[in-house]
Amino acid sequence: MAIEDDVLVIGGGLAGAMAALSAADANEDARVRLVTYKQSTLRHASGLIDVLGYAPDGVSASNASGGSSDSSDVNGPLTDPFDVLDDMPEGHPYERVGSEAVREGLALFDEVVGDAYAGAHTETNALVPTHGGTVKPTARYPVSTAAGLASDDRDALLVGFETLPDFDAPLAAAHLEAAGVPFSARGVTIPFPGIVRDDAKVTRYAHLLDRDEPVTTGAGETGAREALATTVADHLAGESRVGLPAVLGDEHAAAVRADLADALGVDVFEVPMGPPSLPGIRLEDRLFEALEDADVRVTSGVPVIDYETADASRSATGTGATATDGGTAGDDRIDHVVVDRNGTEIPHRAEQYVLATGGLVGKGVRSERDRVFEPIFDCYVPHAADRYDWFVDDVFGEQPYARFGLAPDRELRPLDADDEPEFSNLRAAGAVLGGYDFAAEKSGAGVSIATGYVAGRRAAEEVGR
Ligand SMILES: Cc1cc2nc3c(=O)[nH]c(=O)nc-3n(C[C@H](O)[C@H](O)[C@H](O)COP(=O)(O)OP(=O)(O)OC[C@H]3O[C@@H](n4cnc5c(N)ncnc54)[C@H](O)[C@@H]3O)c2cc1C
User: Are 150 and 264 members of one domain?
Assistant: First the structure.
């Protein structure tokens, strides 16, 4: 017996979650399901929602801050991504969906995250200091980072922990000052009360503060929040804000920050860290709560491994014409996909499908010695035949592999080698799409939100037609 839904989203990262939420929002009668396998990149990402920090090559970035307006090789940081979103190169995901869809996707994201995120009041990028002391142009940022913005001219004390070497606060402060921020930054490194092990997980710091566990310091036994505030207070020298690594609580992060700020008498902010990322984990939690609220059925921990078209002429493993040859033999409508639940193959049937399985990092796109491919439907992934053309020697150069992914039409249906939709009822969203370099452009979350929004909406609108 197949499990039946109207819209089936494959992949539980930002793109898949947004696609499922958008489908549920567009058609409240539609039965929407999200099937996902392993952890998504949200747990590695900073939790910042970058829409576009740097324009792709060839796009005039006259609004770049710090660059001359007539210099075409100045790509950013962009002050306002929307100034260039209508000029994106053909095939870029933003060009496919259009700038209005970016706005609408962000509006849905804002609704979902509520007051956990800031930045919705303007289309201008905010500049958020990160753990390396760089300043990141970003469209939405966790409210925990808000007091740290680089546009704020209040002096800042950055505090790192001896047992958390990923954040070198004195170095980060020096980098910020060298970058010309309009405030003075100073960094210190302190022990974290209650933690002595170098290999403590970031969640250990967060839970100590969440539960305000008793810890013993030279001053005796107190709650972890008070102990941390007391240790930091010894280093304050007139600064009116303090930045700490983003480990300040998980479930009770707002209360932890408020208690620290009260005790110190200054604003407290988090500095986004590398993986694993608590702001990313908090965002993932929020998205999955929203999926539950929207009655989206979620099936986690299981991979989609196969599919079959209505007349069984195409499948990833079966006989008949396969997608490998870009052929469209038989019916090009996906009838069902196959989910592997502990070795048992369960068919899942839906009217519409959204593929949001991630890129090369998330394994939604894979590469072997001589080919780059999409492993579930074997959708066409444009790439040079010669693998030596997949990268350039200059490590700082534009790397072709960074843009590998599916090429969709404006409905976000993946196209085959002849520019025809692979399937009439399959759309794709997020990092599985090609044509953009999220790391260079700082556009990862923005593309996932905009394309997830469009793919989910279009899929839901097709239900019952
Ligand atoms: C280290 C790192 C840091 C980043 N930092 C930032 C940042 O600061 N700001 C920003 O805007 N962006 C950042 N990004 C980019 C951003 O995280 C991604 O571009 C974006 O979130 C991709 O989301 P996605 O949903 O498309 O894919 P993913 O997050 O990769 O999710 C794909 C999901 O699909 C599931 N899946 C895969 N195959 C199957 C299958 N066969 N069956 C079922 N499920 C499957 C995976 O298990 C996973 O859960 C970062 C990315 C990385 C890797």
Answer: yes
